[in-house]
Structure prediction request, 260 residues.
Amino acid sequence: MKTMKRLSILLALGATVALMPSVSRATIIGGSHDFTSTGGYLTAGTNGVARFKWGGAPTGGTNSYYQNPCQVCHIPHKSQAYATAKAPLWNHKLSANTYVTYDSLGSATYLGGAITLGSSIACLSCHDGSVAINQTSGASGSSTTNSLNGAAVYVPSFAVETLNAGTVASGAGPYVGFNNLTQMHPIGVSYSTAVANGDTELQPVTGILTKMLKGTSQNVECASCHDIHETVGTAGTIPYDHALIQPLEGGTLCLTCHKK
Ligand code: HEC
Ligand code: HEC
Ligand code: HEC
Ligand code: HEC
Prediction:
């Protein structure tokens, strides 16, 4: 009896711990980009948005589909060309938008040179609101099946990074015309070019900054500030932190790059 009681207290304690908001690192699983039915984000019914079938029609049995959180964005075969998607093994359908980038000519102090969008294109494939979350690139073929998984799901409220150059369609989307990035922090800008052009107020590239800058041109992209995999910076340690790689408190994020 005593043992039973202790056991139930322990069980209750376990349940409480499990229900407490997690302040530990989340990774994709359990993070803001976990679109499986257990992810808690944009779960379509009990099936999740990250629900895939292997090779067209279900092959029978109970495992006719599986949920892979990575596959909404990455696929090991038949991915889109890196040169197009600018993100590795990219599986999400890309936006048809051509973006108007940071108004560098309108800035008297900009030294970053030409803007070439990198992996931000991959983020914008969902975040410009024109493509459904649950829309992958392939229309057919065993690995890429499930071009649109059920009813289309959009993130209209998250298309805020772009100015509304077009019209917001009423209803559930798609949201067209959000292609204007002039009023957000420059992305697709080369840090090393800015330094080479004489920006003496950028920090030396060490520590976490080496992971924030992308590619050999050391580009600043969406993923420089947002750590959606929650593996690099502090993302996932503060509830609802916008998956930021560094905290905003005290300007930490900004001061990682800027000496001000
Ligand atoms: C919502 C879309 C999305 C999901 C879901 C996602 N990724 Fe990514 N991933 C990206 C983007 C965009 C990039 C390129 C930008 C960057 O550097 O973070 C990337 C980059 C990567 C890279 C190469 C860069 C690096 O950090 O090593 C790997 C490996 C990777 N992802 C693995 C995964 C795995 C494994 C999962 C599932 C557990 C996953 N991703 C889920 C969008 C996603
Ligand atoms: C220079 C750093 C930086 C870059 C680059 C950046 N962001 Fe952000 N983003 C932030 C900060 C800081 C916040 C939180 C404060 C705020 O809401 O402005 C934020 C907020 C957000 C939010 C939360 C919704 C909102 O607006 O409140 C989304 C979604 C987002 N960013 C997506 C993106 C995407 C997509 C890109 C690339 C197209 C991007 N960000 C590039 C710093 C950045
Ligand atoms: C497959 C579609 C998809 C892709 C690709 C994608 N996102 Fe998101 N993102 C979403 C959705 C949907 C949400 C809203 C989740 C929610 O709050 O329900 C979101 C939320 C966010 C938020 C807010 C999260 C928070 O905790 O406040 C940020 C920031 C963000 N995304 C940045 C990015 C960045 C940066 C990339 C590229 C590295 C990216 N996203 C790629 C679909 C996507
Ligand atoms: C990953 C590095 C990085 C982060 C983080 C970052 N920036 Fe930047 N930022 C840059 C680079 C590179 C440029 C282009 C520099 C240039 O023109 O010399 C830039 C440009 C700017 C500009 C425009 C400069 C101009 O002359 O037109 C402003 C303003 C700015 N950043 C503010 C911020 C703020 C505020 C934050 C924090 C929310 C921030 N940055 C975070 C790298 C970063």
User: Anything to note?
Assistant: Strands lie at 51-53, 65-67, 189-190, 219-220.
